[in-house]
From TrEMBL:
This is Helix-turn-helix transcriptional regulator. CDD domains: HTH_XRE. SUPFAM superfamilies: lambda repressor-like DNA-binding domains. InterPro entries: Cro/C1-type_HTH, Lambda_DNA-bd_dom_sf.
């Protein structure tokens, strides 16, 4: 498990989005226009990592990163985590047996 603060994650996402933008040869203004976000919004995102979710998703759609985001949040059925009811049921699976009082 990766231990990273939300702020550091925002900054890292902004850095990676900028790298992808540059790799695709887009200017900030060009990407902002294609994504349907304002230029100041994109500039602020790249500098600080702060952006609304909808604007972030519109940018990532243009940068061909939207599918990766959706895959990242897809539920993983192979996870070792269980629901609390499953944990309780497994610990109570074998009831204690007592002898009769005869």
């Amino acid at each position: 498990m990766l231990l990273i603060s939300p702020l550091k994650a925002q900054i890292e996402l902004a850095k990676r989005a900028k790298e992808r933008r540059l790799g695709l040869g887009y200017t900030q203004k060009g990407l902002a226009e294609r994504a349907g976000v304002s230029f100041p919004t994109l500039r602020k995102f790249e500098q600080t990592g702060k952006i609304s979710l909808s604007s972030f998703l519109m940018i990532m759609d243009v940068l061909d990163g939207l599918e990766g985001i959706l895959k990242a949040v897809k539920p993983d059925n192979s996870s070792s985590f269980k629901r609390i009811t499953d944990v309780i049921a497994s610990t109570n699976a074998k009831p204690r047996l007592r002898g009769s009082k005869s």
